Amino acid sequence: MTRREALPPRAAEWLLERTLPPAEGHEIAEDLRELFAHRRRERGVLSARLWYWKQVAIFIRRAGVFRSETGLEADSLRADVAYALRSLRRAPGFTAVAVVTLALGMGANIAIWSVVHHVVLRPLGYDAGDRLVRVWPEHHFTRKRFETFRDRTSSFETLSAYTLTGLTLTGGGEPGVVTGLLVSHEHFDVFGRKPLLGRSFTASDGEPGAEPVVIISHGMWRQRFGGLADVLGQRIELEERRTIVGVAAPGFEPLGSVTDVWVPLVFDPHDDEYTHMANLELVAVLREDTSTESARAELEAVASGLDPPLYTLDEVPGYTVAPFHDVLVGSVTSTLYVLLGAVSLVLVLCCVNVTNLLMARGVARERELAIRQAMGASRARIVRLLLTENAVLGLFAGALGFVTLWLVSGYLTAIIPSRIPRGGDISLDGDVALIGLVLTIVATFLFGLAPALRASTPMTGLTTRGASSDKKRFRMHRGLVAFEIALSLALVAASGLLLKSFWRLQNVDTGFRGEAVVSIRVSPGSFRYPEEAQRVQYYQDVFEALRQLPGVTNVGAIHILPMTSQSMAVGYSPTGEPLPADAAPPMASYRIVTPDYRRSLGIPLLEGRDLDAFDRSGSTAVGLINEVLARELSPDESFLGREFKYENGEAWFTVVGVVGNVRQHRLEHEARPEVYVPLAQDAWPDSMVLVLRSTSASTERYPLYRDAIGSVDGNVPITQIRLMQDVVESSMSEPRLRTLLFAGFALLAFVLSAVGIYGVMSYTVKERTHDIGIRMALGASQKRILRDTLLDGMRPVLAGMGLGLLLSLFATRALAGFLFEVEGTDPAVYAVVACLLGGVAMAAGFIPAQRASRSDPLEVLNAEN
Amino acid sequence: MLLAILRLGKHSYSVPIVLEIEECTGKEVAPAAVYIALRRLEKKGLLSSRLTPGSKGNKKERARRYFKLRAAALERLRDSRESFQRLWDGIELTLEKS
To answer: Which of these, A743, A99, A805, lies nearest to A482 by C-alpha position?
Structure first.
């Protein structure tokens, strides 16, 4: 034997000593040399050399352990993860069911959380942050009041006014109506966003006689001006010729919805609008040390201390100062939180299911864990091992949930109703991923801690069959099933209530017949048609042109279409006597219509006559009222021919007809008092919605309608061509989405509880095979075994249902605001839900019970021995 | 591991420990695993070790680290023997039958 053969491979030894820390490296190298010699003697040089290389490779792989003290921990964590992966791979069925169950819950949760995060929780991102507030009195501000407050209060760093308006854009392509904000010059300062190009407004832009200017949105700049820098100084026809002085920063949508143009408010004390037109809303930045409460107090003090007084009434209206963020998203917050509650329940359900699975698996692994304990693994060590397994499971599920969500996110964002403020911001970004991670960790503890603690209880594996721990385990499984059923029942009941409510909503009589009716907004505008008579003539010409089209049976127009969010109301006197000046008058919706409107929309005429072509400017002022109003004005006799009066007792018009009630805003809101006056006598609106009834409502006819309207005046913008049915549908988008989501959650709850019950029953049956075998051997019939097993399995289900009923009576209170004509305690819904859930539970329990009843006693008892 | 050290008595340094375990289990053992286990047990307070200085002339007298069981380890061994005993209770009968 050469000297070379007597020693381990030199390269390997060199590698070993470089890999390990010097002190230990040397010691280990010496030991390995000794072992090498031993091996060489026993198995020959080649085998020993191979062995040596293998050992060096192992040392290199685990070098971290020797390098640092903490390395030991890291290494064992890595080992745990590797072990977890191996053990999960060994049980593919369990792993798949657990991961998919959790992924469903996680995906749903991440989705709702991402909406809540982007809409409600995330700050608006303006410089002023929390100090950005909205200020409003009971009614809107006039320009005069705004200026008074701006000059006399000290609570605000900046105070600005705005009002939303539609402006007609003509010249250069299709005429259109754009969304505009009329703003005081402080507007851009309040939000702390300078325009991307050009300048923001200055005080002089709002002076009477100043050159008309406009700032356009980033989107409009890109679309209409191709994003070219020379846009500044160009002029656009925005009801009057305006010079573009700026382009707003991208994404600047202060009201949470798209704004196309900003136009300065003109403050002219000699103009009637200045003192009378109360249409302004205020946004302000509070001073650093001022609270909303003290700002509110100051506004009231200023308002009441003015001389001459700002208000003609004795009473100064109350003011509200609220964080801008709350005002912007307040309307959807409750819906989102209720959804969040529901989806959290779904996650808990998923976790309970997985807990059950893990517990069942824990039993199967008792022996393995007991051996680990016997070998010296501490309880903490085993808990850690199991938690690592759970964490791996949770991470897989979280990742799967996130990826699935990402894949379907395009579809999901499409179903978010456009009414949700900041809805455009919703996306799956880093924040959402972080939320997903947090949810994963929470879920991991939720589903994993109890099984881990339980499985690691000292020597669980050594208890003998039928001992008390078995009973405890059964109790725990059943408890979990009961809990699961309780949660499911609450979810399904909530969904049932919403479904019933939605069904009721769909069957609400709108008061009109919207089939085969198309609505088209036309905006001739007061700029193009300054005189009222011109506008009336324009509409008549349009009606004439449309009537020529084949299939068109009626054409009318109204200035505010029913079932939209717009509204306009007037105060009236129910008795005809003037009301005291400080009393709040009853309000009636106020609609300007053309004679054929009622027939076009199919609203029934209950009494009197319709409006007609003889109701002109200059003739007696006439109008129609709806049934609610008629009953209110004169409950016992007809109100026809009598005068409808304003709240100050002044006569407005003579009532010539009573028409059926129409739901004005939403299906869930009862019809309110309403008046209809003829356009010919009240032709101020610069845009109207045409209501066109034809023999068939088909979108293919839209171009025909456009052409006919265009033939009268090609420069009048035509917008919002919609089927009346779609208008009604879209008013239901929020309840529909809510109902849809809840129904989805409920379905998930059904499936989860079915799986849960099936799992536990199967497990119970398996554990009791021995007992069942004995019973069968003693003469119990199959039928009897089936019945007993099933009944036994149904006990926790019944308990869960009882608990669930209590839970849902409490939980559905949160839904009260969303229910329409359905009580939170609707017995029919609960009965159906209980039957459904019971049926599902029964079906899920039947299979294992049947399996139990079919087992062969001989086989069972043999297997036991 | 603890058993091997116990059996080896005063000769218990890494090389004989590896060989002892291999002999008892009939399987090859990676020395790296043994080193890691020894470190871990020492950290847990179940083992103590001392390094003997080697003499330069004699190759066999190189520096070696000898391990010794501490009281806690003995207690663990006792517990674990009882556990095993319990694990086997009842099973032996079955094994013999089959």
So the answer is: A805
**Rounded to an integer, what is the distance from CA B67 to the centroid of its chain?**
9
List of residues 6+ apart from A673 with CB closer than 8 A: A572, A586, A587, A588, A589, A625, A626, A628, A629, A632
Of the residues B2, B6, B14, B17, the best mutation for testing chain A's interface (the one with the most A CB atoms within 10 Å of its CB) is: B14
C-alpha to C-alpha distances, A702 to A557, A597, A689, A705, A720, nearest whole angstrom: 17, 19, 15, 5, 11
Q: How far apart are CA A113 and CA A346, in angstroms?
A: 13
Count CB pairs under 8 A between chains A and B.
Answer: 57
The CA-atom distances, in angstroms, between A766 and each of A116, A361, A787, A795 are 44, 13, 16, 18
- The answer to whether A373 and A458 have CB atoms below 8 angstroms apart is yes
User: Whole-angstrom Cα distance, residue A29 to residue B60?
Assistant: 14
Task: Tokens for A212, please give them.
Answer: 């008309």
What pLDDT score was predicted for residue A70?
43
Q: CB distance B83–A462 less than 8 Å?
A: yes
**Nearest CA among A504, A645, A516 for reference residue A574:** A645
Q: Mind listing the pLDDT tens digit for each residue in A556-597? A: 999 889 988 777 778 888 888 887 766 667 888 889 999 999
Nearest-CA neighbor of B15 among B3, B38, B4, B31? B31
ipTM of the shown complex: 0.88
Euclidean distance between CA atoms A623 and A611, whole angstroms: 7
A626: β partners: A659
pLDDT at B98: 58
Tens-place pLDDT, residues A266-319: 888 887 777 766 678 888 898 888 888 888 888 877 777 665 555 444 444 567
Q: Which pLDDT does position A677 carry in this prediction?
A: 92
Nearest-CA neighbor of A626 among A597, A586, A651, A661?
A: A661
Contact status, residue A819 vs residue A338, Cβ threshold 8 Å: no
Whether A213 shows a pLDDT value over 90: the answer reads: yes
DSSP A1: -
Peptide bond into B53 cis (omega under 30): no
How distant is the Cα of B83 from the closest Cα of chain A, in angstroms? Answer: 6
Work out the minimum CA distance from A827 to partner chain B, whole angstroms: 56
Distance from CA of B64 to the nearest CA of A (A): 7
Q: A38 contacts in B (CB within 8 Å)?
A: 15, 19
Chain A residues touching residue B15 (CB < 8 angstroms) = 31, 34-35, 38
Question: Picking from A287-291, A481-485, A659-663, A694-698, which range would have the lowest pLDDT averaged per residue?
Answer: A694-698
Contacts of A772 (CB under 8 A, 6+ apart): A765, A785, A789, A852, A855, A857, A860
Higher pLDDT, A539 or A470: A539
How far is it, in rounded angstroms, from Cα A664 to Cα A512?
Answer: 11
Token representation of residue A684: 């101020």
Neighbours of B55 (CB within 10 A): 10
Query: CA A354 to CA A581: how far, in whole Å?
Result: 67
Res A609: pLDDT:
92
Whether the Cβ atoms of residue A249 and residue A193 lie closer than 8 Å to each other: yes
Evaluate if residue A517 carries a pLDDT over 60.
yes
CB-facing half-sphere around the CA of A740: CA atoms within 13 A: 10
CATH of the domain spanning B2-70: 1.10.10.10
Q: Which residues pair with B48 in a beta bridge?
A: B68
Question: Nearest Cα to A87, choosing from A480, A385, A525?
Answer: A385
How far apart CA A601 and CA A318 sit, in angstroms, is 40
- Arithmetic mean of pLDDT over chain A: 83
- The whole-angstrom separation of Cα A677 and Cα A589 is 11
What's the number of CA atoms in the CB half-sphere (13 Å) around residue B28?
11
| pLDDT above 90: residue A117 | no
Whole-angstrom Cα distance, residue A724 to residue A554? 14
